[in-house]
Design a protein that fits this description.
By secondary structure, this protein is mainly alpha-helical. It has a single domain, classed as Non-ribosomal Peptide Synthetase Peptidyl Carrier Protein, Chain A (Orthogonal Bundle), CATH 1.10.1200. Helix 1 crosses helix 4. The protein starts with a helix and ends with a helix.
Length: 88
């Protein structure tokens, strides 16, 4: 089965988040629609993790998310983050 560019981006984003937040999970084990923050999140991310992800997004993709509310909305799930990057 071949992957699409969207699938490749989502896998790349999962790897980046896991690396930046020092989580020991396989990227493939994280569902694209799983929440990244909150009690149902398999990652247990906090605001410091959000800041690290924001800095990595700026460094790797040239996307600056300075508004905390926008950052939180964009980082709802891998799907939402990939959609945002596709429009940015």
């Amino acid at each position: 089965m071949t992957s699409t560019p969207a699938d490749d981006l989502k896998l790349e984003l999962k790897r980046m988040i896991l690396e930046e937040c020092d989580r020991d999970l396989e990227p493939e084990s994280l569902a694209d629609d799983a929440p990244l923050f909150g009690p149902e999140s398999p990652l247990d991310l906090d605001s410091l993790d959000g800041l690290q992800i924001s800095m990595a997004l700026q460094q790797r993709y040239g996307v600056r998310l300075a508004d905390p509310k926008e950052l939180r909305r964009v980082l709802t799930s891998i799907n939402d983050l990939a959609d945002y990057l596709g429009r940015a």
